[in-house]
């Protein structure tokens, strides 16, 4: 029953992006009584929070898997792999992200912090490979900045992309931008 209510809530969120259904609308859609909804969840906030936690888990899993796939790829292909995976994960959970946060641009905010923490050791691998000259502190700073930029750019592609935009071109541009962040400043100045 709990799964049925969550599935119905997700369906309603996807049908009406950016708005939360009432518990009454949810009960009607799930073909259950309002009492049944309240037996499992205190309110719509609790339902959206459970959906958000599931989304965070899935985003973390997808991103972790993409980092693993990217390990043996060329730097550009590795970046495309990671950017594609994160953008796809954000797209898959767009309805929940929109319902969880006040604006689409901040949709990766709190959820991103939950995703980022467990991935920090993995997130260091590609930058460390590209910048073996950096000490641990400089590498951690670079990873901190690029992880935030990656989240922001991928959420913009997934949630705010203008109609008619070329998704693949945006992903490739994002990959090039992130690779530029990993370049040695001395090589960029020449």
Description:
The structure is a single chain. The protein has 190 residues and is mostly helical. It folds into two domains: 1-41, Homeodomain-like (Arc Repressor Mutant, subunit A, Orthogonal Bundle), CATH 1.10.10; 51-189, Tetracycline Repressor, domain 2. 78% of the residues lie in helices and 0% in strands. The chain has eleven helices and no strands. The protein has helices at residues 2-15, 23-30, 34-40, 44-70, 75-92, 94-100, 109-123, 125-130, 136-160, 167-182, 185-189. The chain is elongated. The protein starts with a helix and ends with a helix. Residues 22-41 bind DNA.
By CATH, the architecture of the largest domain is named: Orthogonal Bundle
> Which stretches are poorly predicted, pLDDT < 50 over at least 5 residues?
103-108
Question: In angstroms, what is the radius of gyration?
Answer: 19 Å
The average pLDDT is 87
- Overall form: elongated
What percent strand? under 5%
Task: Return the CATH topology of the largest domain.
Answer: Tetracycline Repressor, domain 2
Q: Count the E strands.
A: 0
Protein name: TetR/AcrR family transcriptional regulator
Pfam family, one: TetR_N
Keywords: DNA-binding
Domain HTH tetR-type: 1-59
Q: How is this fold's topology laid out?
A:
Layout: H1 2-15, H2 23-30, H3 34-40, H4 44-70, H5 75-92, H6 94-100, H7 109-123, H8 125-130, H9 136-160, H10 167-182, H11 185-189
Helix pairs in contact: 1-2, 1-4, 2-3, 4-5, 4-6, 4-7, 5-9, 5-10, 7-9, 9-10
Protein name: TetR/AcrR family transcriptional regulator
Organism: Rhodococcus gannanensis
Domain HTH tetR-type: 1-59
């Amino acid at each position: 029953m709990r799964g049925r209510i969550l599935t119905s809530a997700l369906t309603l969120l996807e049908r009406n992006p950016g708005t939360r259904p009432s518990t009454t609308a949810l009960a009607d859609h799930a073909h259950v009584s309002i009492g049944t909804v309240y037996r499992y969840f205190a309110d719509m906030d609790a339902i959206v929070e459970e959906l958000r936690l599931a989304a965070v888990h899935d985003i973390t899993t997808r991103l972790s898997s993409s980092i693993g796939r990217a390990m043996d790829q060329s730097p550009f292909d590795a970046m495309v792999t990671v950017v594609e995976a994160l953008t796809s994960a954000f797209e898959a959970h767009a309805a929940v992200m929109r319902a969880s946060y006040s604006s689409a641009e901040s949709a990766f905010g709190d959820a991103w912090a939950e995703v980022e923490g467990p991935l920090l050791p993995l997130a260091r691998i590609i930058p460390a490979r590209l910048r073996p000259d950096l000490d641990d502190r400089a590498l951690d700073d670079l990873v901190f900045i690029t992880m935030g930029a990656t989240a922001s750019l991928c959420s913009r592609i997934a949630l705010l992309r203008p109609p008619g935009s070329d998704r693949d071109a945006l992903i490739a541009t994002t990959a090039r931008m992130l690779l530029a962040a990993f370049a040695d400043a001395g090589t960029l100045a020449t």
